[in-house]
Amino acid sequence: MKRATGRGPNINITQDEFAVSDRHDGVITTILGSCVATCIWDPIVKVGGMNHILVARSHTALGINDFAGINAMELLINALVRMGADRGRLNAKVFGGAAMINGLSDIGHANASFVLEFLEREGIPLIGKSIGGGSARQIRFFPSDGRAMQRTVAAPPDLEVKRKPVQEERNGVELF
């Protein structure tokens, strides 16, 4: 996870990035599929930020590994605290976690579950959420007041993959 390079009023973040802002005219945007974005702000100091988590939780031979998700959340929270936010006043909204491709693992559900569990464990109130489904989302977050706007992108129709019939190799001898 790295901090996005934008510093102006409009900051766009992509996978594995985060951004924070204290600008009254600031907006942070991203586009999500199975990824999850957490928008966190302090309503008194009027600072906020957003992260874009690609994979929050992975499964290894040793069990579940949450390091990437914890890192993403702590980097965002610590950046807000450095800007004057009080961890006890933080509020959150969560977006994303869609199941984008039928038949594959549901990484979106795992990402959303991680973030919701993290917020509950850390005592950060969840003010709003839009998670799951099968559509991509475009998110606009206004960090000074915690407003968020979402636009969903209609899911493409399911495609049926037709496979060519396999031709058996023949040697000219027919058995009956």
TrEMBL record:
Family matches, as InterPro entries: CheD-like_sf, Chemorcpt_Glu_NH3ase_CheD, Cytotoxic_necrot_fac-like_cat
Positions in coiled-coil regions: none
Listed EC numbers: 3.5.1.44
Entry keyword annotation includes Hydrolase: yes
Family: Belongs to the CheD family.
Gene Ontology terms for molecular function: protein-glutamine glutaminase activity
Physiological role: Probably deamidates glutamine residues to glutamate on methyl-accepting chemotaxis receptors (MCPs), playing an important role in chemotaxis.
Catalytic activity, reaction form: L-glutaminyl-[protein] + H2O = L-glutamyl-[protein] + NH4(+)
Keywords per UniProt: Chemotaxis, Hydrolase
Name the UniProt record assigns to this protein: Probable chemoreceptor glutamine deamidase CheD
Domain of life according to the entry: Bacteria
Annotated organism of origin: Pseudooceanicola albus
GO terms classed as biological process: chemotaxis
SUPFAM superfamilies in the cross-refs: CNF1/YfiH-like putative cysteine hydrolases
Enzyme class: hydrolase
